[in-house]
Design goal:
It contains two helices and twelve strands. By secondary structure, it is mainly β. The longest helix has 7 residues, at 153-159.
Length: 196
C-alpha cells in the first residue's frame, strides 16, 4: 500500500446576520494513490483497500440557516445543508489474481454519494422544545467495478466464491423528531428534562 498524495483547491464564502446565515464552498481534490475499496474481504471480513493511480473529487457544499421568529410565541430556527459532488476514478488498473489488470477508469469511487442533504427545524417556547430533522443520502457504490461487475466475466472469476451481483446502495432518507420539556426545581434538583 502506497502513501496517498493530494492536491486540494477550494474557495468559499459566508454571510452572517442577526436573522440568517449563508455559506458555500467549492472544492476540487486531485489524488494520487488514493486508498479505495477493492471489492474483496480479508480473513477477518474487513474490506481490502488498494491504491488507485489517480482519482478526482469535486463539488459544492451549501449551508443556510434562518431565525424565522423569536418573540412571545417562542423561537423557530431552520437550517439546511447539502453537498453535491462527483467522485471519479481517473486511472485505476485493478490487479487480478492471474497477474493481469482491468482498467476501472471513469467509474464512481465507492462509498461517496453524489448528493447528501439535511434539514433541521427547532422550535422552543419556555421550557418546551421540538426538534425535527430530515436527511437524504444519494445512491453510492460499494466497490469500484461499476457496470463491469456484471459485464466482465474476469471480475466474477477473480472474486470466486465471494462474487456478488449488486454493488450499488439505493438512495434513502430518514427523519427524526424529538419533543422535550424541562422541569425546573424538580424534587430538590436543579431540573430534569424529559424527552419523547
Amino acid at each position: 500500500v502506497k502513501t496517498e498524495k493530494m492536491m486540494n483547491i477550494e474557495t468559499g464564502w459566508n454571510y452572517i446576520s442577526e436573522t440568517y446565515n449563508l455559506s458555500g464552498n467549492i472544492y476540487v481534490m486531485d489524488l494520487r494513490d488514493e486508498l479505495v475499496k477493492s471489492g474483496q474481504l480479508d480473513q477477518f471480513g474487513a474490506p481490502i483497500d488498494g491504491n488507485a493511480e489517480q482519482t478526482l473529487h469535486y463539488g459544492i457544499e451549501l449551508e443556510a440557516g434562518v431565525k424565522a421568529f423569536d418573540n412571545s410565541n417562542g423561537r423557530l430556527d431552520l437550517y439546511a445543508n447539502g453537498t453535491f459532488s462527483q467522485n471519479k476514478i481517473i486511472t485505476y488498473n485493478y490487479a487480478l489474481n492471474n497477474g493481469t489488470t482491468i482498467a476501472l477508469d471513469g467509474n464512481r469511487i465507492s462509498g461517496f454519494p453524489d448528493i447528501m442533504s439535511a434539514f433541521t427545524l427547532n422550535y422552543k417556547i419556555s421550557e418546551f422544545n421540538f426538534l425535527l430533522s430530515a436527511n437524504y443520502v444519494g445512491s453510492f457504490m460499494t466497490d469500484n467495478f461499476g457496470d463491469l461487475l456484471t459485464t466482465d466475466a474476469r471480475i466474477k472469476t477473480n472474486l470466486g466464491g465471494g462474487y456478488y451481483a449488486d454493488n450499488q446502495v439505493d438512495s434513502y432518507y430518514f427523519m427524526n423528531a424529538n419533543l422535550s420539556y424541562n422541569f425546573t426545581d424538580f424534587i430538590g434538583t436543579q431540573g430534569i428534562r424529559v424527552h419523547l
